[in-house]
Design brief:
- This protein has 12 helices and 14 strands.
- It has about 400 residues and is an alpha/beta fold.
- The longest helix has 20 residues.
- About 40% of the residues are buried.
Amino acid sequence: MEQLTLIAPCHFGLEAVLKKEILSLGYEIIKVEDGKVTFCGGWDAVCRSNIFLRTAERILIRIGSFQAASFDQLFEETKSLPWEDFIPENGKFWVAKATSVKSRLFSAPDIQSIVKKAIVERLKQSYHLDWFPENGADFPLRLTIIKDEVTIGLDTSGAALHRRGYRQATVKAPIEETLAAALILLTPWKKDRILVDPFCGSGTFPIEAALIGANIAPGMNRSFTSEEWDHLIPRKCWYEAIDEAESNIIRDPSLADSMDIQGYDISNNAIRAAMENARLAEVDHLIHFQQRPVSQLSHRKKYGFIITNPPYGQRLSDGQDMPALYREIGEVFSQLDSWSWYLITAFDQAERYIGRKADKNRKIYNGMIKTYFYQYMGPRPPKGKGKAGSQNTEKEEREQKDS
């Protein structure tokens, strides 16, 4: 099978999580860089990585990389790439996004226009045409220039992979599904451990946890641009990937009893949105949502997990003060003294007002916003505690230290 070089962009700071996911699918890692992981695989890897990866933003096929310090060089190097191997004569192609960092070429519109012209010239020679109808499948391109090094990728995903298809109802400033999944995977949480999000908003953390717990692939209920590339990807590849995803789902009726995932929010509108989104994701039977302020957070069981995205900055409601809110978080969470807490926030003084220094603090970029993932590790549960305190294996200890 033909080997492709694939690029999976992700949130800055979460490359290790994505690398682990790709390795678990059986693909070889070529390179890990800030905000992306490059790996290799056949056309089946395009299908499987789109359907299975929880933390990638999209999957690109690298068409080529080269140095370009002038627009003439950009044109000629782009034209030299084998575009006819990917784009048919009726394909609709365009540069969906161009990004330039510390490079002599920095005008995105000019870069997009020149790359498009270069591809047209190449395809004119290949197909012996002077005009292209572009009435076929879509072939969006993404281009980055970093220190004059150009990389051009063909976007196989279309809509970003955080668009799982279930979040139809939303609230202000929701956390992206890919980011929520990555943060859960950074913790040693397992499906037999309690998980609570006291600021659940539209339900992203609880829903992503339920998808992980039930082993439901995140891309099962959406479409991808490359599904229309019949000349490149056999339909069999898509069918086999979907069949694999279906066979992996845990459908045991007892799962709802063994999983304890809860989402709370002070807003009734948020709870309604979360419940609707969980229904669309087909995990509503695995999650308990309830309107409840953080001040009323309590739980009779031990050794649970809090994974949450508290309000900060513009997300605070009128009259609500960040220091006061984070003091309240510290006071309430500290009552759950056997629990582990994980908070992502852009508020850089969170530790000060929570009243306790985090065991770990990981910087993660949520778009252009620098956020902090504060990790407060609770004690390990005794062995043999069952659901309330499942066995903490040596592997879990390592994961806690590494996260």
